[in-house]
Design brief:
Helix content of chain A: over 70%
Largest sheet of chain A: none
Shape of chain B: globular
Helix content of chain B: 25-40%
Strand content of chain A: under 5%
Number of helices of chain B: 15
Strand content of chain B: 15-25%
Radius of gyration of chain A: 24 Å
Structural class of chain A: mainly alpha
CATH class of one domain in chain A: Mainly Alpha
Number of helices of chain A: 14
Largest sheet of chain B: 8 strands, mixed
Order of helices and strands of chain A: HHHHHHHHHHHHHH
Oligomer: heterodimer
């Protein structure tokens, strides 16, 4: 990509983020509920609610609050949590790494299983791998994430007691415990991804396998391995490659469910807790951070697709 | 069931006597006496008998406990700053000691205070501070520290209603505090068992981030808090109750989902948890791998709140009809799986004001239908909305009562509202009916702010001279018999006026791994407004060898 196009994209990113910040701020302002009630509990008096709202700066007009927030946000300060009194940036820095780890590991696991399974199913349509894969895949696709998660907990944590049902120690404190704690959440997240990837790759690979050049390769006596990995995977993975960054965004949504189910301190749970407590600036910051990740992923997807498909590359260059 | 509880307690005592499990628990001077019992060894269930200090059979020093809680303490542990709910109180009472505690008989006893005594007409209270105690930061506990705490509580927006009767708090000597009231206030010592009476170190109250670095005199000292992950406390070796606590460390882990918490207990990730979910309690009762302790002592009432300022709920006959339509035995049996008992008022059994019969209308669908038909003939059809917090538990119960009301001719639509929004609309009075849990506690004075017309909290939605008069006697009278009579009068008035549709008493349960002993003590809950009234069972908990 040229420098100019990078600049253009960066400018567009800023515009998108600006728009998101306005929409989020507005939506949060009209959301029913009150941060003061979360802090004061049931039975708060009118005077107490007014006093706390004033101390949080919530008695000022919306536009002033937004302007204040925007000014400090441009300086890298996303405000302070009403609940903890911590800077929002600190909370995000604390909570994002685990969510990113969850999402990345889930993608890797899903792809690592889906690629061989998808290719093999395409190679032998109607074969045993294909049949197990389509039935199992359909099951995984139709199973909501929380249901799969609860099932995994029941089997592997409650019944077999192999893995923890909730929580995760930090890698530094307990590396093995960390990996063990990651397994069930990752499987819950990856199940759906795997099924989708395998189905898509199977479809694409079957189209590719029907091409003349594959027949040529077979006639030349190339080994199956080489045909599948070298000549089928790259062209067949085009739609997969453009899909992965987008589903990564979806996985961030899934992380909200999984982090709640497994009681993990990630950014998804931060958002859920912030909604319950009407911790508006935390929510605003988290939404913005997720938006940045999402936009970057889409950018990344563009780059990958160009690399995989020379036609798109040359078209744009021309 | 209360009788069964007592009986189990007796059996427990006998078991202890027979098996020769001696008493090893400490009994501090002036603190609650030890009359309870642990269950027989290996028993899957135990019934708790009260808040009295239970002597732990053969306690073991050392070990740690992982406690799964329903919420994180994001807003910190400064009880003078923000509301301290059950999860917060469970942690707070390991770090702080309350000035007083309430035993299972409802008697207020000094705890961190050596004594809390009123003058003859209850217009002044004197708190003598227990000598020789130091906060975790090494500073001494004295009158000045207690004054700092009470002043901080008094000026906090959190307590404007609760501490309104206090005129001044002053040190009256190095170890004595005088609290002057604006008028007679006979239950001030009960309030000191609530988070208002948890004593924090003045250094913590002065620090900018004190709420997240709590310092008290309690059995455990704060170590660290990691948001949404854990909060750790460790044994205070210099604790004023010598020999206590037994555990080295308690790790609190927040996990909002109760099913996930039960799974965590069964999988062994956590050692102990508590819940008020009847569904989960029923499930845990059948689990022999879990030790379960239940209590409804001082428990809250579950009820439907009627907006008496709106038609048709402003008509007492309609309110009675709505009450008579509810088959509360059936709700308890089916929805709550037989865990809970039918409630008939705001005062639970064993507290002043409780009555077997409050005059609250019983189940009578035919009479209810007649009233509704008469009202509808004159005023047109009744169509109501029941506002409930978003949760499967609330929704399931609401569907059951919706059907019961339909059978007497009242159409009720369900409206599920996210919890914070629910609180806001509840406060504004923007509802027909809501599903709620409140009241309970050891003394009726604790409930004054919900009902007194001068009270600033609009949740109760009551303005009734008879109720006000009863509450005034409860606050000012020095005669326990007179206070009790007034509480009963208040209970009857609420039963007659049907401002609330009582459903059941809340049952709280603590579930733990079988090797956790000393469980049958304090249970979170015990009334809304954060009233953990007794001392904390974690002080006495230990793990079997």
């Amino acid at each position: 990509m040229t420098l100019a196009s990078v600049m253009r994209r960066a400018a567009r990113l800023l515009l998108v983020l600006g728009a998101i910040s306005i929409v989020t701020f507005g939506l949060l302002a009209v959301m029913p509920g009150d941060p003061a009630l979360a802090l004061l509990g049931p039975g708060a008096t009118d005077a107490a609610v007014a006093e706390v709202r004033a101390s949080l700066g919530l008695d000022r007009p919306l536009i002033v609050r937004y302007g204040d927030w925007l000014l400090s946000a441009l300086g890298g300060d996303l405000g302070t949590s009403y609940q903890t009194g911590q800077p929002v940036v600190t909370s995000l820095a604390d909570r994002f790494p685990l969510s990113i780890e969850l999402v990345l590991v889930s993608q890797i696991v899903a792809l690592a299983v889906a690629v061989p399974v998808g290719l093999w199913s395409a190679r032998r349509p109607g074969g045993i791998v294909d049949r197990i894969c389509s039935v199992g895949g359909l099951g995984l696709l139709s199973l909501p994430m929380f249901a799969l998660g609860s099932l995994l907990v029941y089997v592997f944590a409650v019944t077999l007691k192999w893995l923890p049902a909730t929580g995760i120690p930090s890698f530094g404190d307990d590396p093995l415990g960390h990996v063990q704690g990651l397994i069930l959440p990752v499987l819950s997240l990856a199940g759906w991804q795997f099924a989708m990837y395998a189905q898509i790759l199977r479809g694409e690979a079957r189209t590719v396998l029907a091409e003349d050049y594959i027949e040529t390769a077979v006639l030349k006596g190339l080994p199956t391995r080489a045909i599948l990995l070298r000549h089928t995977l790259k062209p067949a993975s085009l739609s997969l490659a453009s899909l992965v960054p987008i589903t990564t965004g979806e996985l961030i949504g899934g992380a909200v469910v999984v982090e709640t189910l497994y009681a993990l301190p990630g950014v998804g749970r931060l958002m859920v807790d912030a909604i319950a407590a009407r911790d508006l600036l935390v929510l605003q910051g988290a939404v913005l951070a997720v938006a940045v990740v999402f936009v970057m992923l889409n950018l990344f997807a563009d780059v990958v697709v160009r690399w995989l498909d020379p036609r798109i590359r040359s078209h744009h260059a021309g | 069931m209360a009788r069964i509880h007592r009986l189990s307690a007796l059996l427990g005592v006998l078991t202890l006597a027979v098996t020769g499990c001696g008493a090893g628990g400490a009994e501090p001077g002036g603190a609650p006496g030890a009359t309870g019992a642990t269950g027989s060894p290996g028993a899957a269930r135990e019934f708790r008998t009260g808040l009295d200090t239970v002597k732990v059979a053969d306690p073991v020093r050392g070990g740690q406990l992982v406690y799964g809680l329903e919420a994180d303490v994001s807003a910190g542990l400064d009880t003078s700053k923000w509301y301290c709910g059950p999860a917060c109180r469970t942690i707070a009472k390991t770090i702080y000691d309350p000035l007083t505690v309430v035993d299972s008989g409802g008697t207020v006893r000094p705890y961190l205070a050596e004594s809390v005594e009123p003058n003859a007409d209850r217009t002044e209270w004197t708190i003598k501070v227990r000598p020789g105690i130091r906060f975790h930061d090494g500073t001494p506990l004295d009158a000045a520290a207690v004054v700092t705490n009470l002043e901080k509580q008094r000026t906090s927006p959190l307590n404007t209603a609760a501490l309104a009767p206090v005129a001044s708090v002053t040190a009256d000597g190095p170890m004595s505090v005088r609290v002057k009231m604006k008028g007679p206030s006979s239950a001030f010592n009960v309030w000191l068992s609530t988070p208002i009476g948890y004593i924090m170190a003045p250094s913590m109250l002065a620090a900018k981030n004190g709420a997240h670095n709590p310092v008290g005199t309690g059995p455990f000292r704060f170590v660290e808090w990691k948001a949404a992950d854990h909060l750790t406390v460790e044994r205070n070796a210099e604790y004023w109750q010598k020999g206590l606590p037994y555990l080295d460390r308690v790790v609190f882990r927040p996990n909002p989902d109760v099913e996930s918490r039960v799974a965590a207990l069964r999988a062994g990730d956590i050692d102990v948890m508590h819940t008020d979910s009847a569904d989960q309690i029923a499930k845990l009762r059948g689990d022999t791998s879990v030790r379960l302790v239940e209590s409804e002592l001082f428990g809250e009432s579950n009820y439907f709140q009627l907006n008496v300022k709106r038609a048709p709920m402003n008509d007492v006959n309609v309110r009675r009809a709505l009450a008579m339509a509810l088959d509360r035995d059936a709700i308890g049996r089916t929805r709550n799986r037989g865990v809970t008992r039918v409630a008939n008022g705001p005062f639970p059994p064993g507290t002043p004001g409780y009555l077997d019969n409050t005059g609250y209308p019983g189940y009578d669908p035919a009479a209810a239908r007649a009233i509704i038909e008469k009202y509808e003939a004159a005023n047109g059809p009744i169509s109501l909305k029941l506002m409930i917090p978003q949760s499967p538990t609330h929704a399931k119960t609401a569907q059951v009562v919706q059907q019961m009301w339909k059978e007497v001719g009242v159409d009720v639509a369900l409206e599920q509202v996210e919890f914070n929004a629910f609180l806001e609309r509840d406060r504004r009075g923007d509802y027909d009916m809501t599903d709620a849990r409140l009241f309970g506690g050891a003394d009726p004075d604790l409930q004054r702010r919900w009902w007194h017309s001068s009270g600033a909290s609009p949740v109760g939605n009551i303005s009734d001279p008879q109720v006000d008069a009863a509450l005034d006697v409860i606050r000012s009278s020095t005669d326990p018999a007179q206070r009790k009579a007034s509480a009963e009068q208040l209970n009857r008035r609420l039963g007659d006026q049907v401002n609330y549709l009582w459903v059941n008493w809340t049952v709280w349960a603590v579930a733990a791994k079988p090797d956790v002993v000393g469980l049958n003590l304090q249970i979170p809950g015990g009334g809304q407004a954060g009233l953990v009234l007794g001392d904390h069972w974690l002080t006495y908990a230990s793990r079997k060898r």
